[in-house]
Specification:
It is built from 19 helices and 11 strands. By secondary structure, the protein is of the alpha+beta class. The strands form 4 sheets. The protein has a 4-stranded mixed β-sheet with strand order 1-2-7-4. A 3-stranded antiparallel β-sheet has the order 3-11-8. Strands 5-6 form a two-stranded antiparallel sheet. A hairpin with a 2-residue loop joins strand 1 and strand 2. Helix 10 crosses helix 14. The protein starts with a helix and ends with a strand. Keywords: Heme, Iron, Membrane, Metal-binding, Monooxygenase, Oxidoreductase, Transmembrane, Transmembrane helix. Pfam families: p450 (PF00067).
C-alpha cells in the first residue's frame, strides 16, 4: 500500500510539474508578445499555433479573411503561423520598396530555408523559393529563353492553337450528339487539360494526351472502370503538391507530427514524392534519349528540359559551378508546371464567368475580336493581332484583380528597414496581402465592382496605383512567364468566342481560396455561333 501511495504521489508531482511548465511557457509566450520591440496590431495569437487555427477555419476563403483583417487592423498587421511572425502588407508604399527591381535589394529572399522547406528539399533550386541568387538567376535565364523569347511566345501560340483544335474536336462531337445542338459542361477540366498539354509540350516536348482520355472517360457508359493513365494522375496530383508546400511552410514540425495530424502530413508528403518520382523518371528518360542521338544528324528539341540539361553539361565541363542533380532538374520543371497549368486555367474560367454575366462586357469583347480580325469566319492569329486586344487584356487584368492567382506574396528582410512610418526589424517575414491591396478603396474607385475600363489607357476617370496591382508579382522576382501567360489567355479567348457562344449556368463559381485561388466548378452551356 505504501508503494502505491508513494507512486501516486510521484505521478501527482510530475503532473503538477507539467502543468506548471505549461503555464510558465504560456506566460513567457505572452510576455514576449506584449513586450516585443516592434509591434503592430493583429489578431491575438495562441502558443504553438499562433493564428493557424484561424487560418484553417477560413481555409476555403483565405482571401476574404485577409481582406477583412486588413479593414480591421489597417494596411500593416501581424499574423503568426506557429512561432513565425508575418507582417501582412497592403500599403502600396511598402509594396513599392519590397517589390524593388534592384538586384541588391533587401527583399530578394521569399522565405528563409527554414525547417519546412528543408524537409521538402527546397530552397536551393527552382524559381519560387530559391534563396541562392546565382542559382535562381541562372534558372530564370533558362526559363525566359524557354517561354519569354519572341520565338518561344510564337511557339507557345502554336501549341495553344493545336490544343484548341483538339478541344474543338471533342466539344463538336458532344454537341452533335445532342438534339438541341448544345451541351452543358463543367469548363474547368477542359481548360485545365488544354493548358496542361501546351505547357508540358513546351517544357518537356511530351504530349500527355489528356483531352482525348478525358473525352473517352466522360462518354463511356462506365467511366469509373477506366483507369487514369500516368500523365493524368500526375496532373491531378499537382494541386495537392502545391498545398503540401504551403502546409510545410506554415505548420510547425511539432504540429505536423502530432498523432492523427501526421496522417494528413504523410498524405501530402507521399503525394509530393510521387510527383517528384514521375519527374525524375522523365528526366532520366530524356538523358538516355539524348545520349543515343547522333548530334551531327539530329538537333535536340529546344524545350526547357533540354535547356536545363545543356546548361548542366556546361557547368560540369566548366568545373567552377556545381551541376544540378537529376532531382533538382525535375523539381524545376515540376514547379513551373504547377504555375503554368493552374493559373491560366483558373483565370480563363473566371473570365468566362464575368463576361457571361455582363452583356455589355461580352458585347465589347465580341466587337474587339470582330474588328481585329475583320469579322472573318476563319483567320490566323498573329502575335501582333493579340497586342491589339486592349479591352480583352483589360478584362483579364480585372479578373486578376478580383480573383488574384494567389492570396499572398512573401518576402524576407535581411536587414532592418524604415518605410515611411513603418519600422521593419531584421529577419522579418513580410507577406503582401493581395486582396487587401486589390480591394482597397484608397487605391480603387468602387473596388468591389467588376469594371475592366479602369485598365484602359483612355480612362481619365481612374488612374490606378501600379503598386496596388500585383497580378504577376513584382520587382526582381516578378513572374518571368507573365507575357507568355497573357498571350495564352488572349489567344484562348479569341478562339473560344469566335467559335462558340457561352451561357454561364453557375450562379457563383465554386472556388477554393486557399493560398492559391482555384475555380473548382464552372457550369456553362456551349453551342456553335450562328
Amino acid at each position: 500500500m505504501l508503494f502505491f501511495k508513494e507512486f501516486n504521489q510521484t505521478i501527482l508531482e510530475i503532473l503538477i510539474l507539467i502543468i506548471l511548465v505549461f503555464i510558465l511557457s504560456i506566460l513567457k509566450f505572452y510576455y514576449d508578445y506584449f513586450t516585443r520591440s516592434t509591434s503592430y496590431s493583429g489578431p491575438l495569437p495562441v502558443p504553438i499555433l499562433g493564428n493557424l487555427h484561424q487560418y484553417y477555419y477560413h481555409r476555403n476563403d483565405i482571401q476574404t479573411w485577409l481582406q477583412h483583417l486588413s479593414l480591421k487592423y489597417g494596411d500593416v498587421f501581424e499574423l503568426y503561423f506557429g512561432s513565425c511572425k508575418y507582417l501582412m502588407i497592403s500599403d502600396s508604399r511598402v509594396v513599392e520598396r519590397v517589390m524593388s527591381p534592384l538586384k541588391d535589394n533587401n527583399y530578394f529572399v521569399r522565405v528563409t530555408t527554414k525547417e519546412g522547406l528543408e524537409d521538402l528539399q527546397k530552397g536551393h533550386n527552382g524559381i519560387l523559393f530559391n534563396v541562392d541568387f546565382n542559382s535562381w538567376s541562372n534558372i530564370k535565364k533558362i526559363f525566359i529563353k524557354a517561354v519569354a523569347a519572341p520565338n518561344s511566345l510564337r511557339f507557345g501560340m502554336k501549341l495553344i492553337n493545336n490544343g484548341f483544335k483538339d478541344l474543338e474536336k471533342f466539344l463538336d462531337l458532344l454537341i452533335e450528339e445532342r438534339e438541341e445542338k448544345s451541351i452543358e459542361v463543367d469548363f474547368i477540366p477542359w481548360t485545365r487539360r488544354v493548358f496542361a498539354e501546351a505547357i508540358m509540350l513546351l517544357l518537356t516536348n511530351r504530349h500527355p494526351d489528356l483531352l482525348s482520355t478525358y473525352y473517352n472517360r466522360i462518354t463511356n457508359k462506365n467511366p469509373d472502370n477506366i483507369q487514369k493513365n500516368l500523365h493524368e494522375e500526375f496532373f491531378d496530383r499537382l494541386n495537392i503538391t502545391s498545398d503540401c508546400v504551403q502546409y510545410y511552410l506554415m505548420v510547425p514540425s511539432l504540429i505536423r507530427n502530432l498523432p492523427f495530424v501526421n496522417f494528413y502530413t504523410s498524405y501530402l508528403y507521399n503525394n509530393m514524392m510521387w510527383t517528384r518520382n514521375y519527374m525524375y523518371s522523365l528526366v532520366k528518360e530524356r538523358i538516355e534519349e539524348n545520349e543515343s542521338i547522333d548530334y551531327k544528324e539530329k538537333l535536340l528539341s529546344p524545350d526547357m528540359l533540354n535547356l536545363l540539361l545543356s546548361a548542366n553539361i556546361s557547368k560540369d565541363n566548366d568545373g567552377n559551378e556545381k551541376p544540378m542533380t537529376i532531382e533538382e532538374i525535375g523539381d524545376n520543371i515540376a514547379e513551373i508546371l504547377i504555375e503554368g497549368v493552374d493559373s491560366p486555367s483558373n483565370t480563363l474560367s473566371f473570365f468566362l464567368y464575368y463576361v457571361g454575366n455582363d452583356p455589355d462586357i461580352e458585347r465589347r469583347v465580341l466587337e474587339e475580336i470582330g474588328n481585329t480580325f475583320n469579322h472573318r469566319p476563319k483567320f490566323n492569329i498573329t502575335y501582333e493581332d493579340l497586342n491589339k486586344l486592349e479591352y480583352i487584356e483589360a478584362v483579364i487584368k480585372e479578373v486578376l484583380r478580383i480573383r488574384p492567382v494567389t492570396a499572398t506574396i512573401s518576402r524576407f528582410t535581411a536587414h532592418p528597414d524604415q518605410i515611411n512610418e513603418y519600422k521593419i526589424p531584421p529577419s522579418t517575414q513580410l507577406s503582401v496581402n493581395i486582396m487587401g491591396l486589390h480591394m482597397n478603396p484608397n487605391y480603387w474607385e468602387e473596388p468591389m465592382k467588376f469594371n475592366p475600363s479602369r485598365f484602359l489607357g483612355n480612362n481619365e476617370k481612374e488612374t490606378y496605383d501600379k503598386n496596388a496591382f500585383v497580378y504577376f508579382g513584382g520587382g526582381i522576382r516578378m513572374c518571368p512567364g507573365r507575357q507568355f501567360a497573357m498571350t495564352q489567355l488572349k489567344m484562348m479567348v479569341v478562339l473560344l468566342y469566335s467559335k462558340y457562344k457561352f451561357e454561364v449556368i453557375t450562379k457563383d463559381p465554386s472556388s477554393q481560396y486557399s493560398v492559391n485561388t482555384q475555380c473548382k466548378e464552372l457550369k456553362v452551356r456551349i453551342k456553335h455561333k450562328k
